[in-house]
Write a structure and sequence with these properties.
Radius of gyration: 24 Å
Structural class: alpha+beta
Largest sheet: 5 strands, antiparallel
CATH architecture of the largest domain: 2-Layer Sandwich
């Protein structure tokens, strides 16, 4: 069944990593429960340790997705792909104000861009995790995605605020290796084993982001679809050669959750997945909230990675195969979607 108003499959593509998240219960878009308690606004959650630990888990997942989407794909200003470089910046003075520290970091990236390219603006792409010591001092841990080679002494001179350290990742090929360098600084303890919850609570930063990024980074592509069991099992079968792990858990709201992860190097395979998603999206938009029966093989025959096709063309070819079960669209909705 296809239904634009709900979904039971989430497909996430972050670089070569593809994740399928299958829900046993449909989850509805913009669904609200009458008299339900209002969720806290962004940055207004209760300052409990439980919420702090949950935010760490969310942040680590997002950091991994950002790294997976940008490692070895962003060129430098000359068009060359550079290997990621992991740097730590410290302040000689005991700077505890994060806003002041961020301002110095912004200025530094502009000076670094000028030194490398003679450009008066930042052209470097990075993800940065601030770390706080119990005494209040700020450190920055940065993974640069397109920074060319630069001598450490020169780098530290341009920084000009304290010591700098670089960790070699030149022999690491797996994205997990790059992610581990960064994500370990988003933890319940800092690198000295001090409790981060107490530090963030004292600095009134429990509702602040654990990381920040430069502009223009690639983001993971997330698609939410409504598919039947046969279609989902067919997708899993097609991708079985790229499978890396499977996990299952249960949630009171969405039932059983089945997660399958894949590593796909071949661009054509990922293009085929995107073609499949776009086809389903096009059909969902065209059908709106009508439930229809559709066979997986009828969609698959049009999903060749090197073939350009239009959604309308696919929809027209498949239209006669649809068996409509109900048509809940109002006259106003039909006019809105151009049905009448």
């Amino acid at each position: 069944m296809l239904n634009q108003m709900s979904y039971n499959l989430e497909i996430k593509i972050a670089g070569k990593h593809v994740t399928l998240k299958r829900l046993s219960k449909d989850k509805y878009f913009n669904y609200q429960v009458k008299n339900a308690p209002s969720p806290a606004s962004k940055g207004q959650s209760d300052n409990t340790k439980e919420n702090f630990l949950k935010s760490i888990i969310r942040a680590r997942k997002r950091v991994f997705d950002i790294i997976a989407s940008n490692v070895n794909v962003i060129p430098d200003l000359h068009g060359d792909i550079q290997r990621p470089k992991f740097w730590t910046l410290t302040f000689a003075e005991n700077i505890t104000d994060i806003e002041q520290a961020n301002e110095e970091f912004t200025k530094f990236n502009k000076r670094l861009s000028w030194s490398l390219y003679g450009i008066r603006k930042n052209v470097l792409k990075y993800i940065c995790i601030p770390e706080f010591q119990k005494r209040g001092a700020v450190h920055f841990h940065i993974l640069y995605f397109n920074l060319p080679f630069i001598d450490q002494k020169k780098f530290q001179k341009i920084w000009g605020q304290g010591f700098t350290f670089v960790k070699s990742v030149s022999k690491k090929e797996d994205i997990m290796d790059f992610a581990s360098y960064v994500a370990k600084y988003i933890n319940k303890e800092n690198s000295k084993g001090e409790d981060n919850y107490g530090i963030y609570l004292e600095k009134d930063m429990l509702n602040k982001k654990r990381y920040f990024c430069s502009r223009g980074l690639n983001k993971p592509e997330i698609y939410k679809l409504d598919v039947d069991k046969e279609m989902y099992e067919s997708i899993v079968a097609i991708l079985q050669d790229f499978h890396t792990f499977n996990a299952e858990y249960q949630n009171d709201f969405i039932g059983n959750v089945d997660i399958n992860a894949y590593e796909i190097e071949d661009f054509r395979v990922k293009k085929s997945i995107i073609n499949f998603v776009n086809t389903i999206f096009g059909l969902m938009r065209g059908i709106y909230n009508n439930q229809v029966k559709i066979r997986f093989k009828d969609v698959c025959k049009y999903l060749f990675p090197d073939t350009f096709y239009a959604i309308e063309e696919v929809k027209n070819k498949l239209w006669k195969k649809f068996e409509f079960i109900e048509s809940p669209m109002t006259i106003k909705e039909k006019k809105m979607f151009g049905v009448v």
